[in-house]
Specification:
Layout lengths: L1 H20 L3 H26 L7 H8 L5 H29 L2 H16 L10 H12 L4 H24 L7 H25 L5 H32 L18 H21 L8 H17 L5 H23 L7 H27 L2 H8 L1
Length: 373
């Protein structure tokens, strides 16, 4: 127990240090938390202190939960919450006026509002339908004056929450997309280099399966990239500060994801074929080693290394031609694994060629001019 507490305290300390010293998830969380607290204080100052509203609690309570991770989500949540609170309040007030009995009214209202709260269109805000109904039923505040104040204070809190989130450092989530964009090429290159080195040694089934497992994880990174891009796109919607914050760099275009979806899938297929290639014709492991190493060099090249990428791609293509000639040579005993590897690596090189063209197109003019000489 003591060890777990010590570990947790150390983790919290590291998170606090990162929050203070560098931008990242920790700082984003701290900013959003302070904004939520500030929105709640402002809502209470207006509703409870200045207005002296009879149900002032609803304003800070609403504002607190509407400082969401994106401005778009704050707007959507505000609309959802105002609707469900209005419906829950009106249904409960109507049931109480008809039955004049809190227990009977509760038996009628709660099943309906809980079902309404589970309606997918309301998302997490659906919970506030039965909550609003309970406030009305338990405290008996069903007069027209009480209902009007509930709705006005909820609306006030919603407006304050949205305005604070949109006006004070509005959140933009492009960092994760850029991080994964930088990570994918290097992870792919590392795996290809590792497999290339392994092809120079005797076949090891367990090691080859490890390559395949690593390739599967690469496809998971692409899935994570898609989720990050959706989050980034949402954070730019209705965001008034996206042009003012220098840190809000636009992420790479969406067709980039499709290209890398293909590359990681072809690497996965190649590694699966390697995991099943216990017996390959003589000389093929060496050819595959050269091919995979050159393909990894394409992805490992730094920005501006146009000539290096081209040379690596040419080397990988030459190795693939040697592999194809072995497959077509009647003097060699071919195997299903060899045919699969030839097809998988062909598709991989086709996608790598598209990546090289895209990277060269994004290179500075001086780099392109030098590459053309």
């Amino acid at each position: 127990m003591w060890h777990a507490l010590t570990w947790e305290a150390a983790a919290v300390g590291r998170a606090v240090r990162r929050c203070v010293t560098q931008s990242g998830t920790e700082r984003d969380t701290a900013v959003q938390s302070l904004k939520a607290a500030g929105a709640a204080l402002l809502a209470w100052a207006l509703a409870g202190w200045w207005w002296d509203a009879p149900m002032a609690l609803l304003a800070p309570w609403t504002a607190l939960f509407l400082v969401q991770s994106t401005v778009y989500r704050s707007l959507l949540s505000a609309l959802q919450q105002v609707v469900v609170v209005m419906v829950g309040t009106l249904v409960a007030a109507g049931a109480l006026m008809l039955t004049h009995n809190t227990m009977v009214a509760m038996a009628l209202v709660l099943p309906l509002t809980v079902l309404l709260g589970n309606y997918a269109r309301f998302g997490a805000q659906g919970l506030y339908a039965p909550t609003a109904a309970l406030f009305v039923l338990v405290y008996g505040s069903s007069s027209g004056f009480d209902i009007l104040h509930r709705l006005l204070e909820t609306l006030l809190g919603a407006v304050i929450g949205v305005v604070v989130n949109a006006g004070v450092l509005p959140p933009v989530h492009s960092r994760r997309v850029r991080h994964l964009r930088d990570r994918l090429p290097q992870d792919c290159a590392d795996l290809l280099h590792t497999a290339a080195e392994g092809m120079d040694t005797p076949y090891d089934e367990e090691r080859a399966r490890g390559w395949y497992d690593s390739a599967v994880r690469l496809t998971d990174v692409v899935t994570e990239l898609r989720a990050a891009r959706r989050w980034s796109d949402e954070s730019h919607r209705f965001n008034p500060g996206r042009r003012l914050r220098r840190s809000a760099v636009a992420p790479p275009p969406a067709d980039w994801d499709i290209t890398w979806d293909g590359i990681t899938e072809h690497i996965r297929a190649t590694m699966r074929s390697l995991s099943e290639a216990a017996a390959l014709p003589e000389g093929v492991p060496g050819i595959l080693s050269s091919l995979l190493r050159a393909a990894g060099d394409v992805l490992a090249s730094r920005d501006g290394e146009t000539d290096g990428r081209r040379r690596s791609l040419d080397a990988a293509t030459a190795a693939h031609r040697r592999l194809t000639s072995v497959l077509a040579d009647d003097r060699h005993k071919t195997t299903p694994a060899l045919g699969g590897l030839t097809a998988d690596t062909h598709r991989l090189l086709a996608d790598l060629s598209a990546v090289v063209e895209a990277w060269d197109g994004d290179a500075p003019r001086d780099d392109r001019r030098q590459s053309a000489r």
